[in-house]
Structure formats: structure tokens, C-alpha cells
Write a structure and sequence with these properties.
- The chain is an alpha/beta fold.
- It contains 9 helices and 14 strands.
- The strands form 3 sheets. Strands 8-7-6-9-11-10 form a 6-stranded mixed beta sheet, covered by helices on one side. Strands 2-1-12-13-14 form a 5-stranded parallel beta sheet, with helices on both faces. It has a 3-stranded antiparallel beta sheet with strand order 3-4-5, with helices on one face.
- The radius of gyration is 19 Å and the shape is globular.
């Protein structure tokens, strides 16, 4: 499959105005004034809850739709919150080559060479201070924590009550102080009683402009280096590839995808998406388990 690489986009890439949020879905591709049947030259997709089904597979229909976009001259760019080490198996499974944006935009990964081109770290003292201030904002309620260690290891390390489903490849520490024993890329917070939105708001207040805070999935509020988000990562990758926002259609499902959808020329929220993402999307596709990405791509590029 022809996926993301550094080859410049064709000079004739179609430019479409971004519709007002909540407007009608994008017209059928046959109605668009394009010379070769394609619409957007860059298809940016999240992984979990978007391209991947609940069972963490990419359906045959979705693979066929991505191939359809490829034959029309479009490139597929994965933009995921997972670090490169965690998304590599999924990229290999779909034969993905070229650039991928990982770690919520903190990493630019060359899947073809299995090599990180860009990686941002989070200062340990700052991370600890933001955790402390967040708990103060929450009235002294303690958080359960996890960290992703610095590249190239990118190991997920958690405190004992962070999750009820421990994975064999994760690290477990006896106390939170052990989380700060080595360089990290991000901190993940959760509270077992308080809603995610409250934890995210408290973290944003505690972090100010010193860090970036995002909500990637239920029970996981992420604290990242300042200025890191999916729009930054997508923009960096798109520039290397020769694409602009108006060349791009983006798909996502959670609030961490909001910057990406706002950056792209056209933003699609999945049917299973968080209400915050739906509010900024130009279109709502079917659920990820109903091949929502494929449904939109088939309409844009023509059914196989």
C-alpha cells in the first residue's frame, strides 16, 4: 500500500473550503470538481476507536477502502496517541510504510526504517509538580498515575491501582516516587471516583502553559510537554510530505483528536466519538466497529 512518505504532493491537489461545524456531510465524490476522482490527498486517521475495531483489528473493508484512496493518489497517515513501540504491531499488520505521528504528536516515526525521527521528553520535576498541583485542585484527592518512559523504550509504567487489567509488558511500581526514576515522555492520570472531565480541567489549571493536557481514552488524562498535540504532529508530518491542511481529511474519536480535526480541511468524528469531538467535526461517520472510516472513504473515492 502507498502510505505516508516524504514525496511532495501533486501540485494540483484539490482545495476545498472547510464547512461550518454541524453542516451537511461532504458531497458524494462524483460531485466534486476534481480531475482524477480523488478529493483529499492526505487521509489522517487515529488508531484506537477509529481505524481499529474494538478487537484491535483493521477490517478487510477498511483495508480495501484505504487501498481505494491510495489508487486515487491519496496518502494514509496514522496519527495516534500510542508511542511508536505500541503502534508498530498495528502498522506492520496493515503493511504501513513511511511516516506516522505517534505519542499524541510528540513523536514522528519512520515505519519503513523502524526509526524515530522526532521525540519530545517531559521534564521530571515539572511532571511531579503538575501532579501535586492537580491533586490540590481536586481538593487533595490522590490520583492513580502512569508514565511512558522516554524513547526508544517507551515503556508503560503504572502505580498499583491505575488499572484492573495489568498487561505483561507493563511495569508496576510500589510507590509513585519510582515513576520518576528515569526520563519520561508523558504522565497519565486517573481518579477512580471523579469524572475524567474534572480531572482534565484540574490538570489544565495546574499545568497552565507549562504542559499540554489531553484526554485520550476513558480513565486516562495525559500530561505532555508544552506545545505537543496531534495538530502539531500532523502539521510536522504534512509539511515533510508537501501537504497543507486543506489537502487533509482527518478521522478521530476522542478529545485528543480535536486539534487534529481543527487543523485538517475536513474533520470526521466516529459514531462512537466523545461529544466534545463531535461538536467540532464536519461530519459524523458510523461507529468504528461498523467501518466508519471505510464508509466515508468509499463515498469520496468510489466503491471498490
Amino acid at each position: 500500500m502507498h502510505t505516508a512518505d516524504a514525496t511532495p504532493a501533486p501540485a494540483t491537489a484539490l482545495r476545498l473550503p472547510r464547512p461550518r461545524s454541524g453542516s451537511a456531510p461532504l458531497p458524494d465524490s462524483t460531485d466534486l470538481p476534481d480531475t482524477d476522482g480523488s478529493c483529499f490527498r492526505l487521509v489522517a486517521t487515529d488508531l484506537d476507536g477509529t481505524l481499529l475495531r474494538t478487537d484491535l483489528t483493521v477490517s478487510a473493508r477498511t483495508r480495501a477502502a484505504l487501498a481505494l484512496a491510495d489508487r486515487a493518489g491519496a496518502r494514509h497517515l496514522v496519527v495516534t496517541g500510542r508511542p511508536a513501540t505500541s503502534c508498530r504491531e498495528f502498522l506492520v499488520a496493515i503493511g504501513y510504510q513511511g511516516l506516522a505521528v505517534c505519542g499524541q504528536g510528540a513523536q514522528l516515526y519512520d515505519a519503513s526504517a523502524d526509526r524515530l525521527l522526532v521525540s519530545a521528553a517531559l521534564d521530571l520535576d515539572l511532571a511531579r509538580a503538575v501532579v501535586k498541583r492537580t491533586e490540590e485542585e481536586l481538593g487533595g484527592r490522590p490520583l492513580e498515575l502512569a508514565v511512558v518512559t522516554a524513547a526508544p523504550e517507551n515503556r508503560f509504567v503504572i502505580t498499583p491501582r491505575f488499572t484492573d487489567r495489568m498487561r505483561p509488558d507493563w511495569g508496576l511500581v510500589g510507590s509513585r516516587e519510582e515513576l520518576w526514576a528515569q526520563p519520561i515522555e508523558k504522565v497519565l492520570m486517573r481518579h477512580r471516583e471523579l469524572p475524567d472531565a474534572r480531572v482534565a480541567a484540574a490538570a489544565a489549571l495546574a499545568g497552565g502553559d507549562e504542559v499540554s493536557v489531553t484526554h485520550s481514552e476513558k480513565g486516562m488524562i495525559e500530561v505532555l510537554p508544552a506545545g505537543v498535540d496531534k495538530a502539531v504532529g500532523l502539521g510536522r508530518a504534512a509539511e515533510r510530505m508537501g501537504f497543507a491542511p486543506e489537502d487533509t481529511i482527518a478521522f478521530g474519536d476522542m478529545p485528543n483528536d480535536i486539534p487534529m480535526l481543527e487543523w485538517a480541511g475536513y474533520g470526521v468524528a466516529m459514531g462512537n466519538a466523545h461529544p466534545g469531538l463531535i461538536a467540532v467535526a464536519d461530519e459524523v461517520a458510523p461507529d468504528h466497529d461498523e467501518d466508519g472510516v471505510a464508509a466515508v472513504l468509499e463515498r469520496l473515492y468510489g466503491r471498490p
